[in-house]
Specification:
five-stranded mixed beta sheet; binds manganese (II) ion; 6 helices; six-stranded mixed beta sheet; globular
Length: about 230
Amino acid sequence: MDFLFTPPAPVSLPIQGSGARFPVHRVYCIGRNYGDHVREMGGDSARSSPVFFMKPSDALWLDPEVPYPSVTGDLHHEVEMVVALARGGRDIAVADALACVHAYGVGLDLTRRDLQARAKADGAPWDSAKGFDASAPVSALCAASTCGHPQHAALNLEVNGTPRQHTDISDMIWALPEIIHELSKLWTLQAGDVIFTGTPAGVGPLVRGDRYRASLGEIASLEGRMV
Ligand code: MN
């Protein structure tokens, strides 16, 4: 094919213990998925409809040096379990959902909280608050064939050695099979899709020079620094 210019390289994620990389299609995110975080943001944690948004696939960021974004004075961390799908479909039944999952990791849903607050107040979209460049630092993935499909796992974030966020993934309001089921009603899921599954309480600021360490049990870990 004769392209006008060289197309961008595909986005892909490393898989622990494998030379093969996971090629990324889309990045879906769920909001308000741990009750303690919903409450700290002033919301009602009663289960209603899940809130979904997306990040561009090239917002995934593997370099341990993360550039502090422009146009914000209040960048926040949100530590989240990250899920990578090797199968997709539409209207996927809850009972069939985990069979779509290839691997698990941990990542940060970095958020320009000041822009998000303004967008919420104005009823405006969240894209500039959530989908900016390098807004999704993510770990190498652990294949489910190695780590299984965790029902319980500690999700932790430390900043400069101080604990900031901690939960167990079993505390999610919408469990992973339900997230996949709900997403597949709205979009046709595909192999290569990545899902950020929501954050617990303790979200807070990151500034230049901060060092973070995130982990999902023994499954995955992520370290980096804001520059
Ligand atoms: Mn989030």
